[in-house]
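Model it.
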Amino acid sequence: MTVLAILDGNCLLGQHLIDAAAGYGVKEIRVWYHDAKSQLRFSPNNNLENVKMEQFVGMESLKQAIEGSDVVINAYECRDFSVCPDKDQLERINYNFVEDVVKICNESPISKIIHISSIYLQCTPMWPNVNNREIEGIQKNGMMAFKPYIESKNRAETLLMQMDRNYSTVVIARIGSLYGEGDVCSPVCDAILAAEKFSFLPVYGDRGGVFQITYVANVAHALVEIVNQLHERSDIHREIVTIRDKTPNKDIYTNTLVPLLADSGRFNLSKIQIPFFLVFLFLLLASLTSWILNKMGIRSVIDDFPDPVYIYFVFRHWTFLSDFKQRIFFKLKPKFSYDEAKKRSSAYYSELKTENIQSVSWKRNSL
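Modeled.
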């Protein structure tokens, strides 16, 4: 029986990890929150009767949350894909926090760590990212997307991979965008905000891209299955694995927005397409203006606009990574089918109010 520490129980993935761990017979769940106790956005977590759960809040309780655990899953991260990202916050959360976790694990001692990272480390906006396999470090062939974010995540991965190989086991799970019950800051939420303003679901571009997005419960169950494998297998030492499911490799409208928001009857899909190059050009000019103003020491609302590269990834680029290692090495299968994921998620999004959406997807603290 495992004592599992989950770092950041309030992020979408953290909420589902609690539920998944309880269903796998984990002995005890120790959940850490960076600033507030559980928000309980995912209803199954309201009645956890078969598992002991302790909650810890704030940096001062991080060591207490980790000590005594068998496995630590670090889901705490900062994503900032805005025109002017907060580099200090990215460094503090994505790297300095991981330094603290590694130090505590070395002192405790705790030898098994699963760290949540990003598929964007192995992606470039210069050409399609099609069936890419895992690589250690950053994609070196082509321009790097979201440089401050990627560099902070890469430094954290490097730190973890350099832990004592004779003692520690590290699995780095790279994931992309997520959707599902409890979501309050994904591209699906962005679409809800836009649709409420326009009274219909706007269509940006010709729907010619491919956007990898995954049902969060499938990621959570895959990670808890890896927790079990860390106890049962001796051939897992330093692994980087992409976690995804059977959500189709299609444009974001086809794989999520239409089935979750339009087919449910909440919003009508616009019959008019807004040319992508107009949106991209507008954001490119905004990015340039922000850069000029910041050079002059002037902050503006433009700083919070999405990086044009982010919009390119969501609506126009081709990005879908290989699940070969997930299937073959870890032998993981999605807990829920795509139809089940749509059904469960559609019920949630049909009731989600705009005032409950915490942030736009390109500027948030965690997944």
